[in-house]
Amino acid sequence: MEKIILPEHSIFEVVAEAAAELGVEAYVIGGFVRDLVLKRPSKDIDVVCVGDGIALATAVALKLPHRPKVSIFKNFGTAMLRDRDWEVEFVGARKESYREHSRKPEVEIGTLDDDLKRRDFTINALGISLNKENYGELIDEFGGIKDMKRQIIRTPLAPGITFSDDPLRMMRAIRFASQLGFDIDPDTFDAIMDYKDRIKIVSGERIIDELNKIILSPKPSYGFKLLFASGLLHLIFPKMVELQGVETINGNSHKDNFYHTLQVLDNVAEVSDDLWLRWSAIMHDIAKPDTKRYHPKAGWTFHGHEDRGARMVPKLFRDLKLPLNEHMKFVQKLVRLHLRPIALVKETVTDSAIRRLLFEAGDDIDALMKLCRADITSKNDTKVKRYLQNFDKVEKRLVEVEESDKLRNFQPVITGEIIMETFNLMPSKTVGELKELLTEAILEGKVRNEFKDAYAFLLKEGERKGLQVAKLITIDEEGV
């Protein structure tokens, strides 16, 4: 049998020693073995014990110099400890059976063979012995090494059984294919299409966890194409599926916004690992199907799709079980603003337009520019190159205006409190109007955001509104 070289003087030797003293067999199983063979970094170790996994974990902890805490999960029969950078989970070998309408298995004590059979894919059904008589020996009962060499995702048992038992494995198959750049075995993929409706019994939280991992893969479009071809995407994210397709009227066609979105997503993935920037790419044109119109002279239009899309983001996040927090607001902002820099490219870049973009984008301006660059997709390389060169000019002006006016996340130096004190006003519409006039004047470059200029502008606008000055505010070195 093939042997695998495990790191010397490591947690594995401690586990082997503890298992020998307890008189039980122990094996490293699953993802760690897969990643070791593929030479991918991994710090998560699963140890299967043919016996009491919790007892083995406790014995290992006592042998480690720093005596780590053992977290025990009795309901699952598992235990976990941390050893430096390693996170090690222990479980007794088991076999599982499933009921038709649940993905929660009935678990029984089993053999190593039983434990390997319940694994999702052959590349994860690998083991390495930690036993004295065959330490380091590779256990590969289902051809996982061969499948890794062939770059194939395949189930150890008949795929219909694997996916019917645990439908989340259909998402995991596509996730591993996307992360590793592997193909899915034809019989395995056929089973995904056949059993796709079983995904409905899986919680949204588990589904979005797998979808996020697909989105974070090196070329996420591959995973989405598999989700689309299998029919899973139609069930978990139907709004994205609506982007697919081309309509032609009088010889005029619009582009396929589904495949355009995937290209934008891949473009973003080349420059950023930020999950939420990648979600912004997915959502940026999400409202195009709802705003699509055909005009005999103008052709196809999608007027207002950025604003409609921004309004759709909270519901989409809620439906997908994504967090309704600052990440949602970030995506919403980028969807709403994603056309603004492109509009600047098409016209003479004015300082006023640059100021407004800086003001609205704030600290997210750099992320917005990455999205907008990614959004330039065309088969005409000359056109793409020209647009990107124009973006260079816009970004240069952004830097210049930001250095000059400091408008990123700016607040007018004249606050609502100063306005009320100056004119002896209570909180009211008038106060808001004056503050808005001042903000507009600063963005238009008519007034600098400095107290003297801004306050003089306020007094002039107050006079126009017939307001009486109740108190003149002065500024000294310490402020107002």
TrEMBL record:
<dbReference type="InterPro" id="IPR032828">
    <property type="entry name" value="PolyA_RNA-bd"/>
</dbReference>
<dbReference type="GO" id="GO:0042245">
    <property type="term" value="P:RNA repair"/>
</dbReference>
<keyword id="KW-0460">Magnesium</keyword>
<dbReference type="GO" id="GO:0046872">
    <property type="term" value="F:metal ion binding"/>
</dbReference>
<dbReference type="InterPro" id="IPR003607">
    <property type="entry name" value="HD/PDEase_dom"/>
</dbReference>
<dbReference type="GO" id="GO:0005524">
    <property type="term" value="F:ATP binding"/>
</dbReference>
<dbReference type="GO" id="GO:0003723">
    <property type="term" value="F:RNA binding"/>
</dbReference>
<comment type="similarity">
    <text>Belongs to the tRNA nucleotidyltransferase/poly(A) polymerase family.</text>
</comment>
<dbReference type="GO" id="GO:0016779">
    <property type="term" value="F:nucleotidyltransferase activity"/>
</dbReference>
<keyword id="KW-0547">Nucleotide-binding</keyword>
<keyword id="KW-0067">ATP-binding</keyword>
<dbReference type="InterPro" id="IPR006674">
    <property type="entry name" value="HD_domain"/>
</dbReference>
<protein>
    <submittedName>
        <fullName>HD domain-containing protein</fullName>
    </submittedName>
</protein>
<dbReference type="Pfam" id="PF01966">
    <property type="entry name" value="HD"/>
</dbReference>
<keyword id="KW-0479">Metal-binding</keyword>
<keyword id="KW-0819">tRNA processing</keyword>
<keyword id="KW-0808">Transferase</keyword>
<dbReference type="Pfam" id="PF12627">
    <property type="entry name" value="PolyA_pol_RNAbd"/>
</dbReference>
<dbReference type="InterPro" id="IPR043519">
    <property type="entry name" value="NT_sf"/>
</dbReference>
<dbReference type="InterPro" id="IPR050124">
    <property type="entry name" value="tRNA_CCA-adding_enzyme"/>
</dbReference>
<keyword id="KW-0692">RNA repair</keyword>
<keyword id="KW-0694">RNA-binding</keyword>
<dbReference type="Pfam" id="PF01743">
    <property type="entry name" value="PolyA_pol"/>
</dbReference>
<dbReference type="InterPro" id="IPR002646">
    <property type="entry name" value="PolA_pol_head_dom"/>
</dbReference>
<dbReference type="GO" id="GO:0008033">
    <property type="term" value="P:tRNA processing"/>
</dbReference>
<keyword id="KW-0548">Nucleotidyltransferase</keyword>
<feature type="domain" description="HD/PDEase">
    <location>
        <begin position="253"/>
        <end position="377"/>
    </location>
</feature>
